[in-house]
Specification:
The chain is an alpha+beta fold and about 180 residues long. Helices cover about 15% and strands about 50% of the residues.
Protein backbone atom coordinates (compact mmCIF):
# COMPACT_ATOMS: atom_id res chain seq x y z
CA UNK A 1 0.00 0.00 0.00
CA UNK A 2 2.91 2.40 0.72
CA UNK A 3 4.69 1.97 -2.66
CA UNK A 4 1.74 3.09 -4.85
CA UNK A 5 1.34 6.26 -2.76
CA UNK A 6 5.05 7.00 -3.18
CA UNK A 7 4.85 6.46 -6.96
CA UNK A 8 1.81 8.75 -7.25
CA UNK A 9 3.61 11.32 -5.10
CA UNK A 10 6.71 11.14 -7.31
CA UNK A 11 4.61 11.64 -10.42
CA UNK A 12 2.79 14.62 -8.88
CA UNK A 13 6.02 16.23 -7.67
CA UNK A 14 7.67 15.73 -11.06
CA UNK A 15 4.67 17.24 -12.80
CA UNK A 16 4.66 20.27 -10.48
CA UNK A 17 8.36 20.96 -11.01
CA UNK A 18 8.02 20.55 -14.78
CA UNK A 19 5.04 22.91 -14.89
CA UNK A 20 6.86 25.43 -12.70
CA UNK A 21 9.94 25.22 -14.93
CA UNK A 22 7.90 25.93 -18.04
CA UNK A 23 5.88 28.73 -16.40
CA UNK A 24 8.91 30.42 -14.84
CA UNK A 25 11.41 30.03 -17.69
CA UNK A 26 12.85 33.30 -18.86
CA UNK A 27 14.49 34.17 -22.17
CA UNK A 28 17.70 32.46 -21.05
CA UNK A 29 15.94 29.12 -20.50
CA UNK A 30 15.79 27.00 -17.41
CA UNK A 31 18.07 24.10 -16.59
CA UNK A 32 19.49 21.80 -13.98
CA UNK A 33 22.11 23.53 -11.82
CA UNK A 34 23.25 20.56 -9.70
CA UNK A 35 22.62 16.97 -8.69
CA UNK A 36 23.07 16.01 -5.04
CA UNK A 37 23.49 12.57 -3.45
CA UNK A 38 23.50 11.93 0.28
CA UNK A 39 23.23 9.53 3.18
CA UNK A 40 20.99 10.63 6.07
CA UNK A 41 20.37 9.26 9.55
CA UNK A 42 16.62 8.63 9.58
CA UNK A 43 14.31 10.10 12.24
CA UNK A 44 16.99 11.63 14.45
CA UNK A 45 14.41 13.26 16.72
CA UNK A 46 15.65 16.84 16.46
CA UNK A 47 12.12 18.22 17.02
CA UNK A 48 10.38 15.24 18.62
CA UNK A 49 10.77 11.60 19.52
CA UNK A 50 12.88 9.27 17.42
CA UNK A 51 10.95 6.10 16.54
CA UNK A 52 11.69 4.87 13.01
CA UNK A 53 14.85 2.93 12.13
CA UNK A 54 17.32 3.09 9.31
CA UNK A 55 19.30 5.20 6.92
CA UNK A 56 17.93 7.31 4.06
CA UNK A 57 19.51 7.59 0.64
CA UNK A 58 18.92 11.11 -0.63
CA UNK A 59 18.94 12.43 -4.20
CA UNK A 60 18.06 15.99 -5.18
CA UNK A 61 18.06 18.07 -8.33
CA UNK A 62 18.40 21.84 -8.03
CA UNK A 63 17.40 24.02 -10.95
CA UNK A 64 18.83 27.39 -11.98
CA UNK A 65 18.08 30.39 -9.77
CA UNK A 66 14.87 32.21 -10.60
CA UNK A 67 15.53 35.76 -11.76
CA UNK A 68 13.43 38.83 -12.40
CA UNK A 69 12.09 41.58 -10.21
CA UNK A 70 9.78 39.39 -8.13
CA UNK A 71 12.41 36.66 -7.69
CA UNK A 72 15.13 39.23 -6.93
CA UNK A 73 12.95 40.52 -4.08
CA UNK A 74 12.64 36.92 -2.82
CA UNK A 75 16.46 36.48 -2.96
CA UNK A 76 16.49 34.34 -6.13
CA UNK A 77 15.50 30.87 -4.89
CA UNK A 78 16.30 27.67 -6.78
CA UNK A 79 13.47 25.18 -7.38
CA UNK A 80 14.36 21.66 -6.29
CA UNK A 81 12.98 18.13 -6.59
CA UNK A 82 14.24 15.30 -4.38
CA UNK A 83 13.68 12.01 -2.65
CA UNK A 84 14.82 10.42 0.60
CA UNK A 85 14.41 6.66 0.42
CA UNK A 86 14.63 4.67 3.65
CA UNK A 87 16.72 1.50 3.44
CA UNK A 88 14.87 -0.21 6.32
CA UNK A 89 11.33 0.05 4.96
CA UNK A 90 10.38 3.01 7.18
CA UNK A 91 9.02 6.32 5.85
CA UNK A 92 10.38 7.52 2.51
CA UNK A 93 9.53 10.86 0.92
CA UNK A 94 9.43 12.68 -2.40
CA UNK A 95 9.69 16.45 -2.08
CA UNK A 96 9.59 19.68 -4.05
CA UNK A 97 10.22 23.29 -3.09
CA UNK A 98 12.56 26.27 -3.18
CA UNK A 99 16.16 26.47 -1.90
CA UNK A 100 18.05 29.58 -0.86
CA UNK A 101 21.86 29.24 -0.73
CA UNK A 102 24.28 31.97 0.35
CA UNK A 103 28.06 32.14 -0.06
CA UNK A 104 29.99 32.96 3.12
CA UNK A 105 33.37 33.23 1.34
CA UNK A 106 36.38 30.92 1.13
CA UNK A 107 34.18 28.17 -0.34
CA UNK A 108 31.74 27.99 2.58
CA UNK A 109 27.99 28.27 2.03
CA UNK A 110 24.75 27.82 3.93
CA UNK A 111 21.07 28.03 3.32
CA UNK A 112 17.70 26.44 3.67
CA UNK A 113 14.62 25.34 1.84
CA UNK A 114 10.84 25.41 2.08
CA UNK A 115 8.41 23.17 0.25
CA UNK A 116 6.23 20.12 0.49
CA UNK A 117 6.61 16.36 0.63
CA UNK A 118 4.56 13.28 -0.10
CA UNK A 119 5.50 10.24 1.99
CA UNK A 120 4.65 6.57 2.34
CA UNK A 121 4.62 6.55 6.17
CA UNK A 122 1.73 6.20 8.57
CA UNK A 123 -0.74 9.02 9.10
CA UNK A 124 -1.98 7.27 12.27
CA UNK A 125 0.52 4.74 13.65
CA UNK A 126 -0.23 1.87 16.01
CA UNK A 127 3.32 0.50 16.37
CA UNK A 128 6.09 1.96 18.59
CA UNK A 129 8.57 2.06 15.70
CA UNK A 130 6.28 4.16 13.46
CA UNK A 131 5.33 7.83 13.46
CA UNK A 132 1.81 9.29 13.27
CA UNK A 133 2.47 11.92 10.59
CA UNK A 134 -1.19 12.96 10.33
CA UNK A 135 -1.34 13.54 6.58
CA UNK A 136 0.16 12.06 3.41
CA UNK A 137 1.15 15.54 2.19
CA UNK A 138 3.42 17.49 4.56
CA UNK A 139 5.43 20.68 4.75
CA UNK A 140 9.20 20.21 4.37
CA UNK A 141 11.97 22.50 5.58
CA UNK A 142 15.74 22.05 5.62
CA UNK A 143 18.94 23.78 6.69
CA UNK A 144 22.33 23.09 5.16
CA UNK A 145 25.97 24.08 5.70
CA UNK A 146 28.73 23.14 3.29
CA UNK A 147 31.98 23.72 1.46
CA UNK A 148 32.53 24.11 -2.32
CA UNK A 149 35.77 22.89 -3.90
CA UNK A 150 37.17 22.37 -7.41
CA UNK A 151 34.57 24.77 -8.88
CA UNK A 152 31.76 22.24 -9.43
CA UNK A 153 31.87 20.08 -6.29
CA UNK A 154 30.55 20.54 -2.76
CA UNK A 155 30.00 18.60 0.45
CA UNK A 156 27.50 19.61 3.09
CA UNK A 157 25.57 18.54 6.15
CA UNK A 158 21.80 18.88 6.07
CA UNK A 159 18.92 18.60 8.53
CA UNK A 160 15.43 18.28 7.10
CA UNK A 161 12.04 18.17 8.81
CA UNK A 162 8.62 17.13 7.54
CA UNK A 163 5.36 17.70 9.40
CA UNK A 164 1.83 19.00 8.89
CA UNK A 165 2.36 22.06 11.14
CA UNK A 166 -0.48 20.99 13.42
CA UNK A 167 -3.11 21.00 10.67
CA UNK A 168 -4.08 17.36 11.28
CA UNK A 169 -5.03 15.36 14.38
CA UNK A 170 -1.56 13.77 14.57
CA UNK A 171 1.67 15.66 13.88
CA UNK A 172 4.75 13.82 15.13
CA UNK A 173 7.03 15.07 12.37
CA UNK A 174 10.19 13.39 11.08
CA UNK A 175 13.77 14.70 11.04
CA UNK A 176 16.69 13.40 8.97
CA UNK A 177 20.34 14.48 9.29
CA UNK A 178 23.33 13.60 7.15
CA UNK A 179 26.04 14.39 4.66
CA UNK A 180 25.58 15.18 0.97
CA UNK A 181 27.77 15.62 -2.12
CA UNK A 182 26.69 17.89 -4.99
CA UNK A 183 27.98 18.06 -8.54
CA UNK A 184 27.32 21.35 -10.32
CA UNK A 185 26.43 21.04 -14.00
Amino acid sequence: MRLPALIVGAACASALVSLAAVALAGDDGYGVESITLGVLAHDVGAFGRSAEPGTDFNVEIKFDELTGSVWDALLNPQPHLGASLNGSGATSQIYVGMTWLFDFGYGFFGGGSLGGAVHNGETEAFERDEKSLGSSILFRESVELGFRFAARHSVSVMLDHISNAGLAKYNEGLDNFGVRYALGL
